[in-house]
Amino acid sequence: MDAYGHLIFTRFIHFDDQWEPILIRFRFEKFRKFCSTCGALTHEKTGCNFRLQPRNPIQAIPQLPPIQQEQ
């Protein structure tokens, strides 16, 4: 993981050619610095210089239901 890059919240995992890829969601907690605008770990939202371009708006990922943990 690149600490200077942006966080990835979802990723497809390929286990075998005979199975469909599975979408895995990651949940991150307790970061010292995290920018919810651009996903960087180097600053907080208040110090973010990232600006959305009007021509190419970023589409938000729809909110998924909570992950049920087995007991």
UniProtKB/TrEMBL annotation:
Pfam families: zf-CCHC_4. It comes from the Eukaryota. Residues 6-49 form the Zinc knuckle CX2CX4HX4C domain. InterPro entries: Zn_knuckle_CX2CX4HX4C. This is Zinc knuckle CX2CX4HX4C domain-containing protein. It comes from Eutrema salsugineum (Saltwater cress).
